[in-house]
From TrEMBL:
It comes from Odontoschisma grosseverrucosum. Keywords: Mitochondrion, Ribonucleoprotein, Ribosomal protein, RNA-binding, rRNA-binding. GO terms for biological process: translation. PANTHER family: RIBOSOMAL PROTEIN S7 (PTHR11205). This is Ribosomal protein S7. The gene is rps7. It holds the Pfam family Ribosomal_S7.
Length: 232
């Protein structure tokens, strides 16, 4: 097979080609230079350049490309929505990080971050994204909860005040669980669409997560007579 067929010819600048050779990618495919500092690509070399097009683009600017995604990695470019988290204070940044970490499964942080930023992109037409998220969490987070305590052989539900950090964690977890329940039997709907709908409803004091918070408050109110059993 002729390695230098006429199909899929393309040209790469000499500076990019030098960086290509220094990266070790040239060992995987044979290349040939002519007198003008350019090379003609084979089909395999053309496909390899497409798969590493980020490297060739960033090489001219002197920037380091991001790591190419492996199997199952998201193809969504998270940098498109970085404008939503610029100019935030430390507390708001911590809230966004917590949302990404709770959404993450099996350590796939890139996919989790892509889902969160896609959700922010869908929320953008409705106003300030961070303000909507904060309002949704404020409307969902529970102020109090119940804990099972065994007293005289009987298990009682003793109400107690929930810590602030725990309130935010429960609110985000409930919204993600509610968004996941929306996908049952509807595989054509993505998780970011469901999370977008849940955050929008929670900001208006509606939705499954808000109902779960109200039910917990009612349960704590019904067992208020056992509050003196709290020892912690």
């Amino acid at each position: 097979m002729n390695l230098f067929e006429k199909s899929n010819f393309n040209c790469v600048s000499s500076s990019s080609l030098d960086r290509f050779h220094s990266s070790g990618l040239s060992e995987r495919v044979g290349t040939k230079r002519n007198g003008y500092g350019f090379c003609r690509e084979t089909e395999s070399f053309y496909a390899l350049c497409l798969s590493h097009r980020r490297y060739l683009c960033y090489a001219r600017g002197g920037l380091s490309p991001s790591r190419p995604g492996g199997r199952g990695a998201s193809t969504y470019n998270c940098s498109d929505n970085l404008g939503y988290i610029r100019g935030l204070n430390a507390k708001q940044k911590q809230l966004v990080k917590k949302l990404v970490h709770i959404c993450m499964i099996d350590g796939k942080k890139t996919r989790s971050r892509a889902i969160v930023y896609k959700t922010f992109h869908r929320l953008a037409p409705h106003g300030d994204v961070i303000k909507l998220l904060v309002n949704a969490i404020e409307n969902v987070k529970p102020i109090c909860g119940v804990k099972k305590v065994r007293i005289s052989g009987i298990t009682r539900l003793v109400p107690s005040i929930t810590a602030t950090n725990r309130q935010e964690t429960l609110a985000i977890r409930w919204m993600l669980e509610s968004a996941a329940k929306r996908r049952i039997g509807k595989k054509s709907i993505s998780l970011d669409q469901c999370l977008y709908a849940e955050i929008l409803e929670a900001s208006q004091k509606m939705g499954i997560a808000r109902k779960k918070r109200d039910d917990l408050h009612k349960l704590a109110e019904a067992n208020r007579s056992f509050s003196h059993y709290r020892w912690w």
